[in-house]
Design goal:
Chain lengths: 190, 190
């Protein structure tokens, strides 16, 4: 076999992944912070749970512990530079809403806002958290999903021909999907 | 704001995601089972941990509990039909290796094989598991990554112009990336 061994960590083999923007209030609910996260994804359907992995070293980690809730914003491909920029500064030092002139949308179920540029957003309440190595997995129960009109097909899938998502490839690389490759194939349970 | 509320579960807002194929031995190590999983991803860097969410109703769940280890195979876009087919039958009823004429590659650190068609594979030992709603998160420590030559760039990112990954969009839809959209942007810590 023509395989060679790599150190785990030497290859971003689990990318590309959608990059979502996690929104959290500070303790006084004066300033909302927004951070792009690629290590995030669904954990269960019933109840609907979504996990976000965050390093304890970050400002966002401290905010999440205090707030106990977070929003998720998924931005279209044309906003990729904004999404990347949100990861270049810390909310400890910078009010990102002011610095990047972020337009906010009000949540209905939680208090933290989401980004008005999002094509879809979710409102989550932290139900538990677990320490895994150098990261904390914050498990959020999805209480509401807010979507722009006609972004999802009747079967619930993203209409990628109309709305291209931001995918993160690792390091400092980003890309989106090729809607022309979309195929429909049989699917079932294991 | 022109957002409308959707039931969580009505929209696959967290897709597309890479579809990996999880490989596990049966208890007698006579038959390896392979199942495509989209609810899977990295959980930590130190140590390198990778989580796989599996329903307790599935055959794979039972196998994972017994085996305590699993392989991950990432197949190229030209194998999308094979990857989808692996999800249409249960290893309870069918020997997928025989039924789909799967070519296997030997692991070096664990005993479960991976798929020889993979462009990258990982060998994982289950270090813990957690029950989240209707799913179990199996946390695997990544002990080895095996990659085909030149699949990853020096910065560790997938060379998407040469190797297009299989992405799952939800329902029965699959697609891949558009390598022409690849951009390099600043990135830093929160």
């Amino acid at each position: 076999m023509d395989f060679k061994s790599l150190q785990p960590g030497a290859a971003y083999f689990y990318y590309p992944r959608p990059l979502c923007v996690v929104g959290v209030w500070d303790s006084k609910r004066e300033r909302a912070n927004f951070v792009p996260v690629a290590w995030a994804g669904p954990l269960a359907s019933r109840p609907p749970l979504f996990g976000v992995s965050i390093s304890p070293k970050t400002h966002s980690h401290q905010l999440l512990l205090q707030a106990g809730e977070f929003s998720l914003s998924f931005l279209p491909w044309q906003d990729v530079e904004l999404v990347a920029k949100l990861g270049t500064v810390s909310g400890r030092d910078v009010d990102k809403v002011a610095a990047f002139a972020l337009e906010l949308a009000e949540s209905e179920v939680i208090t933290a806002p989401f980004l008005a540029n999002a094509y879809v957003a979710a409102e989550c309440k932290v139900s538990e958290r677990h320490s895994f190595g150098d990261q904390t997995l914050f498990v959020g129960e999805i209480l509401r999903v807010a979507a722009r009109d006609a972004v999802f097909a009747p079967d619930g899938t993203l209409r990628v021909e109309a709305m291209a998502p931001v995918l993160y490839l690792g390091a400092n690389r980003y890309l989106t999907v090729d809607a022309k490759t979309l195929v429909t194939l049989p699917v079932a349970e294991d």
